[in-house]
Design goal:
By secondary structure, the protein is mostly helical. Helix content is 78%, strand content 0%. It has 32 helices and no strands. Helix 9 (154-164) runs antiparallel to helix 10 (167-180), helix 18 packs antiparallel against helix 19 (337-354) and helix 23 packs antiparallel against helix 24.
Length: 598
């Protein structure tokens, strides 16, 4: 027993010693001290006979140009382990480095001949070639492996083509992978999204569409139709997406999840007609359909957007009817909690800002906040809405506490950005610009582009005013005007904005875009267009000229029904403001209007 304990302690001590040596060797390697690293790695390999150590040792020899020594070391291992193909890979690649391509290719042919019908070995050898950046040999191993085993090695092929940026083969692999493993849909969709997100000229988008349509025509696999629906949503082609979603639902005899998803995405993008069609389709399927109540909730959200489009002149009876409908749906026990929270938040907004019942709205939110079963995100949503109600009641510091609590509860998700931005705007409304800037600076580097971009703009104008005290009164008037907008008092806001535009160059461009919002929300679209055009004409160096240009394009497309004018402004975004956050949406709109959609 004593001897056994001694052996265990000794073994443990040797393991710790080896780990220390390994860390030292890797440290030398990372500092380009390859000769020192080689000495340690060689000793570690001699003791443990682990390929990991040998690979590092060989790399040190190669990096110091000791190719002949490297070949001798590899040949020695090949003699000892003739069936270990990875040593042959090493030899072939070292020979290539010495310029002996002919001998290297012979060895690669030998590897391919001796490749066993064993998937793990095939992947291992492919990855060894990949390590040496020998993409041709990697592809040959994978192709031979497919013939031997019938497997496609999608993951390794994806890595190979991703490294090469060979998008043609990469997309083929992803689509084949999806066709054979439909359960991987979410993961593969995320991969496609990561590529399309950074697709500047729509080349990858066009490539995916063409390849996807060929797959659909050739195979008719349902999963490809599902990917097509997702693609059309990315392109904001909601009508086409809905047609495909209905067809897909019939094809798989489904309950309508894709139809509901199209409805929600259309709602979020203000494509209200398509959203209405989607939700009505699901409602017509009857109460037994699992999306029946969710579709009812969605349709109510559509009605809220439709009724409140003109914020400053709304039929009071329609508001009361809508309030009644919200209450009925919220009280339905079959509605999922997430959907119920969204409805409660909107009902509170309706009551506080449009029906002048802030106390009822606040108490409604508190009733659900007292529910201990709510997760932090749901609580955060309700707390932010409570803060907005307190703002309307001029209870600024109470509102700040609500926003701060919402941010604390959601430090690991995007709701924190919204809550922090609302804190910043509350300080801004108060004229406490230093504190506002502190909050805005937190957001400047965040991933959410909406809040990040707004934070950068507000932080910039605050800094300008702090640097030049003569600008502070103008900034205070602008902050007051924005507060009046927030509490739906447009006349008071317009008076302050007009004063800024008439008497000051500082913030006149920002004042014009705020006037545009008021005129737009009043249904005065021609006046809204004049506001944006004045900004574009007179403030060519404005921080928000790209935003004004994009909004003017939308205005001509959606409200003034002048597609040629809309294209003109979208084109300006594409050519004059390429780094703008509006470039991607402008491209979508321009291509649709120009008939370039595939």
């Amino acid at each position: 027993m004593k001897n056994l304990l001694t052996i265990i302690i000794l073994s443990f001590s040797l393991t710790i010693f080896a780990q220390d040596k390994l860390q030292l060797a890797i440290s030398y390697y990372n500092q380009n001290q390859y000769e020192k690293a080689a000495t340690i790695f060689k000793k570690l390999y001699q003791k443990r006979k682990t390929k990991f150590y040998f690979d590092y040792y060989l790399s040190c020899l190669i990096k110091t140009g000791q190719f002949n020594k490297a070949l001798r070391e590899v040949d020695r291992q090949i003699k000892k382990q003739p069936y270990e193909l990875s040593f042959l890979v090493d030899k072939a690649e070292i020979l290539k480095l010495t310029g002996d391509e002919q001998q290297a290719n012979k060895i690669i042919k030998t590897i391919l001949k001796r490749l066993p019908a064993e998937p793990n070995t095939i992947k291992q050898i492919a990855n060894y070639f990949l390590k040496y950046k020998d993409y041709s040999a990697t592809e040959k191993v994978l192709d031979k492996g497919t013939k031997l085993t019938g497997r496609e090695f999608f993951q390794t092929k994806f890595t190979l083509y991703a490294i090469q940026r060979n998008y043609d083969k990469l997309f083929d692999v992803l689509l084949s992978w999806l066709g054979s493993k439909p359960q991987q849909f979410n993961n593969i969709q995320k991969i496609f999204y990561s590529y399309l997100k950074h697709d500047i000229n729509d080349e990858l988008s066009d490539l995916l569409f063409k390849k996807l349509m060929l797959r659909i025509q050739k195979t008719h696999l349902p999963v490809y139709y599902r990917l097509l629906i997702w693609y059309l949503i990315q392109k904001q082609q909601f009508d086409l997406a809905l047609i495909q979603a209905i067809a897909y639902n019939r094809r798989i005899h489904g309950f309508g999840s894709e139809i509901y998803n199209v409805g929600i995405k259309a709602l979020e993008s203000d494509s209200l007609n398509t959203a209405t069609k989607a939700f009505n389709y699901l409602i017509k399927q009857g109460v037994r359909n699992p999306y029946y109540f969710k579709a009812q909730a969605g349709l109510t959200r559509v009605m809220f957007k439709q009724i409140t489009q003109n914020k400053y002149s709304i039929d009071h009876k329609k508001l009361l009817d809508l309030e009644k409908q919200y209450k009925q749906i919220i009280n339905q026990s079959y509605l999922p909690e997430k959907d119920k929270i969204n409805l409660i938040e909107q009902l509170a907004d309706l009551q506080a800002f449009y029906l002048n019942k802030p106390d009822s709205a606040y108490n409604l939110l508190q009733k659900y906040l007292d529910n201990t079963y709510l997760d932090n995100k749901a609580k955060g949503q309700l707390l932010i809405e409570q803060g907005k109600i307190l703002l309307k009641q001029h209870k600024f510091y109470s509102a700040i506490l609500k926003f701060a609590k919402a941010a604390d509860l959601n430090s690991n998700n995007e709701l924190s950005d919204k809550a922090t931005f609302m804190q910043a705007m509350t300080y801004f409304f108060l004229g406490n610009f230093k504190w506002a800037k502190t909050q805005l600076d937190i957001l400047k580097g965040q991933t959410d582009k909406l809040y990040s971009n707004d934070a950068i703009l507000y932080s910039e104008i605050i800094q300008q005013a702090l640097d030049d005290s003569t600008k502070l009164p103008i900034l205070r008037d602008f902050a007051k005007a924005q507060y009046y907008e927030f509490i739906l008092q447009p006349d008071s806001a317009i008076a302050l904005l007009d004063s800024i535009i008439k008497n000051a160059y500082f913030l006149a461009d920002f004042a014009l875009i705020e006037k545009y919002k008021i005129h737009y929300n009043s249904g005065q679209y021609n006046l809204a267009a004049k506001d944006l055009q004045q900004l574009i004409n007179n403030f060519t160096s404005s921080l928000i000229i790209d935003k004004a240009t994009y909004l003017l394009g939308l205005l001509y497309e959606d409200k003034l029904h002048n597609p040629e004018k809309a294209k003109e402004y979208y084109k300006k975004i594409l050519f004059n403001y390429r780094g703008s956050i509006y470039t991607s949406p402008a491209r979508l709109h321009y291509r649709r209007l120009a008939g370039q959609f595939q």
